[in-house]
Amino acid sequence: MQDAILIRYADLSLKGKNKKRFVDLANQRIKEKISDTRVTYAHRHDRLYLNLNGAESSAIIPILKTVPGLLSFSIITSVDKDLKNIQEAALNRAKTIPLNKTIKVDTKRADKTYPLTSLEVSQAVANYIFKHHEGLTADMHHPDEMLNIEIRKDRAFVYVGKIQGLEGFPVGSMGKGIALLSGGIDSPVAAYLAIKKGVDVELMHFESSPLTSIEAAQKAVDLAKKLAVYHKHNRIVLHMMPFGKLHETIMTYVPKPYHITIMRRMMVRVAERFANLDHTPIIINGESIGQVASQTLESMKVTDKVVDLPIIRPLAMLEKREIIAIAKAIDTYKISIKPFEDCCTLYVPSQVATNPRDFYANRYEYLFDYDTLLDDMIQAKKTLEISTDDTLDLTMEGLSVQEALKKVMP
Ligand code: ATP
Ligand code: MG
Questions:
Q1: Three-state secondary structure call for residue 397
Q2: What's the pLDDT score for residue 346?
Q3: Same domain, yes or no, for 231 and 157?
Q4: Is 147 exposed, middle or buried (0-12, 13-18, 19+ CB in 10 A)?
Q5: Helix H segments across 205-319?
Q6: Low-confidence stretches of the chain (pLDDT beneath 50)
């Protein structure tokens, strides 16, 4: 007997000529995450079979659950095609099903020369199970669990049930995007949703030190580490942009109700300059319609005016409750709710324009030389590559954010 994992791809069937590219990329994303070298792979009929060769499925399944582009998995027992072996393997699997559940045995034959029909195999296996194991009953129409048998050319597979994957598309299959990552609850969720949809994401954090603390910058690093879990090679790029000087300039020249509007416009301008250098087609942020005073449709429009690239807002239509549920599932929530201020939490709602106008925004931006400030910021950026097993600590004795970043850079 030999255990394997059957992996089904998510929604790749619709992709026509691109299918091969998607499947190859999904396979690559799986292989680069599984470090157990005993595991071998076989690709057949739009499915991937991962032979465990003694590796533990309980160690592999949690990894597969972090790979975008996979629909579901089943842990299979592979036996030679003798009916007796199939019955024995099926019985062992049936014993893992909780008592008092209903089951249905379903057989598929790829090998049409097999002496029994699919129905005959199902009946023989079901009879064997019910004879040797009490506590399960048959239900042909709405079973709690399916016990599946596949008879292939070389061997037979037996498996029970499906473990749900992330779905979405393999990372990189949809091109690149820059995700604006604050220290809040929303933007890590937005970045995650983009990664899940196959976007090769680079993160960008604007840190407003000395107005904001080093702990706020550390939150971005810690969040990036959580997002790296879903990204290719368990790594993700995080650009740390020194925003302090520009932030202070905005506070000096711009009336308070327009601070957030202008800051947001500056952030997307930076992201766009960056993206253009790198052929990145989209910017992603964590705005959700109506969630706070600055996230109105008018405000989004005034932000979008200053860039050509599309700004994708994966959370636009979600409720806060739904966003928090995802944040908890991807384990970013407890980092996000740590109390340290980032640039935008410095503002109280009554001071924010809910209906900003492009005309006024342009007028206020005309009051200072933001182009030079943006150039300086891009010059002084620090780019980190964060991996799931890094422990990157910026909060060192008495260092500024920039000094700490310099110190941790390779
Ligand atoms: P979040 O929970 O993501 O911080 P928020 O509800 O606090 O969102 P805002 O402060 O209005 O919303 O920010 C809106 C979006 O702008 C964020 O979701 C994020 O994508 C981006 N953003 C805000 N501040 C920063 C920052 N310091 N660095 C990078 N991006 C930022
Ligand atoms: Mg925020």
A1: coil
A2: 65
A3: no
A4: buried
A5: 214-228, 244-253, 259-277, 297-304
A6: none
- Do 231 and 121 sit in the same domain of this protein? no
What angle is formed at CA 188 by the lines to CA 184 and CA 192, rounded to 5 degrees?
Answer: 165
Same domain, 133 and 216: no
What are the tokens at 378?
Answer: 């891009």
Do the domain assignments include residue 171? no
Which atom of ligand 1 lies nearest, measured to the CA of 345? 10
* Cα–Cα distance for residue pair 319/196, rounded to 1 Å: 19
Q: Which residues line ligand 1 (CB under 6 A)?
A: 180-182, 184-187, 204-206, 267, 285-287, 291-292, 294-295, 342-344
pLDDT of residue 400: 87
| 204 within some domain | yes
Same domain for 184 and 136: no
Nearest listed ligand to the Cα of residue 179: 1
Same domain? For 90 and 221 the reply is no
Mutate to test the pocket of ligand 1, among 180, 181, 182, 192 (most ligand atoms within 8 A of CB): 182
Cβ–Cβ < 8 Å for 103, 145: yes
Instruction: Give the predicted TM-score (pTM) of the model.
Output: 0.93
Q: What is the pLDDT of residues 200-258, one digit of tens each?
A: 999 999 999 888 889 999 999 999 999 999 999 999 999 999 999 999 999 999 999 99
How far, in Å, from the CA of 381 to the mean position of ligand 2?
A: 21
Domain boundary among 124, 139, 166: 166
Going by DSSP bridges, is the β-strand pair 47-51/156-160 parallel, antiparallel, or unpaired? unpaired
Q: Which residues keep their CB under 5 angstroms from ion ligand 2?
A: 182, 184, 344
Identify whether residues 210 and 313 lie together within a single domain: yes
CA–centroid distance, 343 to ligand 1, in Å, is: 9
Residues in the chain: 410
pLDDT at 210: 87
Total count of domains within the chain: 2
